[in-house]
Design brief:
The chain is of the alpha/beta class and 562 residues long. 40% of the residues lie in helices and 14% in strands. It is built from 20 helices and 17 strands. The strands form four sheets. A ten-stranded mixed beta sheet has the order 3-4-5-7-6-8-9-15-16-17, with helices on both faces. The protein has a three-stranded antiparallel beta sheet with strand order 10-11-12. Strands 1-2 form a two-stranded antiparallel ribbon. Strand 15, helix 13 and strand 16 form a beta-alpha-beta unit. The longest helix has 27 residues. The chain starts with a strand and ends with a helix.
Length: 562
Amino acid sequence: MDGMMGFLSYYQLYELNHAALTPMRAAADMFDLFLKNPLNPMGQTPLARNWRAGLELFERTTRRYAKPSFDLPTTLVGGTRVPVVERIAWSKPFCDLIHFERQLERPRKDPKLLIVAPMSGHYATLLRGTVEAMMPRHDVYITDWADARMVPLSDGDFDLDDYIDYLIEMLHFLGDDVHVIAVCQPAVPVLAAVALMEAAGDRFAPRSMTLMGGPIDTRINPTAVNKLAEGKNLDWFRDNVVMKVPFPHPGVMRDVYPGFLQLSGFMSMNLDRHVTAHQDLFKHLVAGDGDSATKHRDFYDEYLAVMDLTAEFYLQTVETVFITHALPRGTMMHRGVPVDLTAVRNVALLTVEGENDDISGVGQTEAAQHLCVNIPEDMRAHYVQPKVGHYGVFNGSRFRAEIAPRISDFVLTHNRDRASAPKPAATAKPAAATAETAKPVAPAKEAGVETTKPEPVKPSVVRSPVVKAPVAKAPVAKSVSDPADDLKRIAGIGPKLEASLNAAGIHRYAQIARLTAKQATALDARLGLRGRLAREKWIEQAKALMQSAPAAGGEAAAASAG
């Protein structure tokens, strides 16, 4: 019923409620200004302080919170305080890539760090503490996902497959010396993107990935959030929580999962705590305890600022991650290409969990260690942080003191060129469990235990030797002196696409002409072409250009493809 209540959707009722309360909020602000005017003799009386506290509480509980800013103007690098400039380095309709550019007097070769923020209701600024902790030793970038209600319908849809495409494009943009941190929800798409890039022999795959509090396998220690999804089918979510964006937002008529519904779910999980916090705010305001009141404002200004998600992304994520458990079962697909976690061999893996996490249970993130069986043992580690919940995994004092240094050391340890990295042993390693026999892996029993050797999969799981399919690598020219073909002669390929193809090792018409269907699909997904390769008939055009090329050029092209 598209979230309908009578003739109006819940979203429309939500907007009407805000509009109706606007005059009351304005009156509350005006009366508050009157009471705190220094010329008002009543301003400091106990009655006035009670009134002012009640007025602020009313205004804060009825407002719509705007997107917060990162507000990180400086950082400490090598003992010196340096300015930080926030720039948009890469942009798409549904995401900006923000670079926290440190204004260093002397250049440093710090590792590039891509922090993938969750697209689950809150803005990327929720990871302000994560960014702040990593900036001193790393060149930090973060994904800033767009509020779906602010994206016009003309910009198209955005689903989980698009999310993975965005990640791959960002990694191509940043180069071949990047490390990735995925916080909560993006653990699944980041792991999928890395597996796809490794399977395709993509040299832009990151050097390491850190997965923090992510739902890799929600069958392990399921939380209340996991059980809600398991108890409903996809149609229930489509009928009850998907709504159309109302006028006058730019994304009017777009199907979304509204942020206010997500916030309601978060609040209801710990409702007593939130009610008590607001009661305490009232008492602090009456007592004149400015520090405690400021801490409350700072936290809730961030926590209550929420964004809408596109319906297609939300529904595909619910189905893939929480209902079918496609990634741990080995059945996840990306645009028709299987996501094979056994292909991950060269990317180091660190998993981090919180002992008291009530959103992603202990063991759910560690499952990645058991699924990526071909990562060498000296390139993996797992850590459980004692006495922290979900948000303590990526923010707070324990994160700064105990988790962030571990992540930084792991990144620096594996910040080496792959050419000099040790190669995996020639003997085949066991493959991941099949969809029929896969079972949840038991989580670590004791918190605070750091290990580089994940427990093996239970003996009851059927294993078979890995037979690695030949990687669909595009051959390069044998001689630097051989001129590359002008790929721009293929209709649909411009200078930017040609550069991307060259970066992927494709320089000749023959390389495109000889792509198999599977290789073409993988290349299309890798470059985020969304079907253009087949739709614009690049293979057929490349064959035609080969036939029309001079004999000498044709021989050189054939040699480079052989």
